[in-house]
Design goal:
Helix content: 10-25%
Shape: elongated
Radius of gyration: 54 Å
Strand order of the largest sheet: 10-11-12-13-14-15-16-17-18-19
Number of strands: 34
Length: 506
């Protein structure tokens, strides 16, 4: 198969009249994914590098070892300078070309070289100058020496270096084409200029309270807010854009001796990672435990722990510890708790499953609302425990018309002790909730675990009322009996008198 190769000074989109055409007779170049055969043209040889094999069934496979096929009688000449190489009627091909760059040391391309040197001395200075012209390009180096400075310039670079004395210090200065200072190097450091005679920033040794620092600083003045600042960051090579990562912004210098300075230290695009060190502000230090992965806040004067945050790990469960007395932690059951106090028995515990534990609860105006309150000790109250009884707190109100006395009579009362009571604890008196014990369902609490004392007292009230009704009826019966007896007695007395009177008359 024949390939036509074009060599031109210009691209195929804008061909010149000097393009050269070459024909190469080789077997088809193949490609499969990122693997392809190559036509290689170098200064010394031209060859095909085979990386693919075509079976008799038309299947391409990748060769384990490349095969080099040297081409003879191929002489492809390149133009001096830029060359555009492409295959006719084909696009998207990959080329490798080895070429020789024209430079000052190649006799092949340096067709015309002119060199001259000169030393010029005047009353003001001495100038050393070396110039060279290669074809149409001119190159040169120039040194100018006078009583104040040594100036160095070379080739066609607009900036130049100058050694001079500034403010009594030996200084190396880079100037721009307008003789404006760009950078000064001296014994105090490196000084950057903003294109005029104003210093924009400095790198050097600074001394504060007899302590020396290698520092980068921006000039400022008291009572000013500095918009420009210091930054550490990255520069993308493709577009030369600077990306500030750690920098100072909006720094305000206060009045002299006031000490009221402020600004913003910004960390951008990155996380602040602490390992064995910490951050100290005032008397508080924040540090990390790289084993537990925990963060600690500590009093730097006493060493006391102020706050600790530990994630869930194989060593311990997640928790937050405050002042060694308050702890948020994860329970093995999956719930989370807030514990105040470190004593074995004297502490308060709140759990996100709705339970609360406390050794003592007291407040002049304490208000508590909950569905269930369990206490395994004593509850003392000077003013008693009062259930809500106002109408606005109740619903489904209806008169209780059952026989309360029957419920009272159907409830047995026992002596007993709780399992948590000590052996010498006084026996308690009350009802027992169990299928083997008589207990009115009217006084059993909503969860079936305890006696509703309010219901029990109310039922007793109703029973007393029923008994009072019986008493009143008995009193009425007694009055009727007393009246009947009184009436019978009166009649008997009257009959007796009448009988006696009749006897006398006879």
């Amino acid at each position: 198969m024949q390939y036509k190769i074009i060599v031109d000074k210009q691209s195929r989109l804008n061909p010149s009249g000097e393009q050269k055409e070459y024909t190469v007779d080789i077997e088809e170049l193949r490609v499969k994914g990122n693997v392809y055969d190559s036509l290689v043209i170098t200064q010394d040889e031209t060859y095909v590098m085979r990386r693919l094999s075509l079976s008799e069934y038309g299947v391409l496979t990748v060769l384990e070892d490349e095969i080099k096929e040297t081409l003879t009688d191929v002489n492809i000449e390149l133009f001096e300078g830029d060359n555009y190489i492409y295959l006719v009627d084909m696009t998207g091909n990959k080329f490798y070309a080895e070429y020789l760059i024209k430079n000052d040391f190649t006799d092949t391309y340096a067709t015309k070289i002119e060199m001259n040197t000169a030393i010029t001395q005047t009353a003001q200075n001495i100038m050393f100058q070396v110039n060279k012209k290669v074809d149409e390009e001119e190159f040169g180096t120039q040194l100018i020496l006078n009583s104040e400075a040594l100036k160095m310039a070379w080739n066609q670079i607009s900036e130049y270096l100058q050694l001079e004395g500034i403010e009594g210090k030996a200084s190396l200065v880079i100037y721009d084409e307008n003789d404006k200072k760009l950078i000064i190097y001296d014994s105090t450091g490196q000084h950057f200029y903003d294109g005029s005679d104003n210093i924009f920033g400095e790198i050097g040794v600074k001394t504060v309270d007899n302590q020396k620092y290698v520092a980068f600083s921006v000039p400022s003045e008291y009572g000013q807010t500095i918009q420009d600042g210091m930054a550490w960051g990255m520069t993308t090579e493709s577009d030369g854009k600077f990306w500030p990562i750690l920098y100072i912004k909006n720094f305000q210098m206060a009045a002299k001796n006031s000490g009221s300075f402020s600004g913003q230290l910004i960390l951008n695009y990155c996380d602040l990672l602490l390992t064995t060190g910490g951050i100290i502000g005032g008397n508080v230090k924040m540090k990390v435990d790289d084993i537990l992965g925990a963060i600690y806040f500590q009093d730097t004067e006493t060493g006391n722990l102020l706050l600790a945050i530990s994630p869930d790990s194989s060593i311990q469960d997640a928790e937050i510890n405050i002042l060694n007395k308050i702890k948020f932690f994860k329970n093995q059951a999956g719930s989370n708790s807030l514990k105040i106090g470190t004593d074995v028995t004297n502490y308060c515990l709140l759990t996100d499953d709705g339970s609360i534990y406390a050794q003592d609860i007291g407040s002049p105006t304490c208000e508590m609302s909950c569905e269930t309150l369990e206490c395994f000790g004593h509850i003392y109250c000077n003013n008693g425990v009062e259930p809500f009884s106002t109408k606005d707190k109740k619903r489904n109100i209806e008169q209780y018309n059952n026989k309360a006395l029957t419920e009272v009579l159907n409830t047995d009362i026992y002596y007993y002790n709780y399992k948590e009571d000590t052996e010498d604890c006084k026996k308690r008196v009350g009802a027992i909730i169990d299928k083997d014990y008589k207990c009115s369902k009217e006084i059993i609490g909503t969860e079936g675990k305890g006696i509703d004392l309010y219901s029990m007292i109310s039922l007793a009230y109703k029973a007393i009322q029923e008994q009072q009704e019986l008493i009143e009826k008995l009193k009425e019966n007694d009055k009727a009996k007393d009246k009947l007896i009184s009436d019978l007695t009166t009649r008997l007395e009257k009959l007796e008198k009448e009988a006696c009177h009749g006897k006398d008359t006879v």
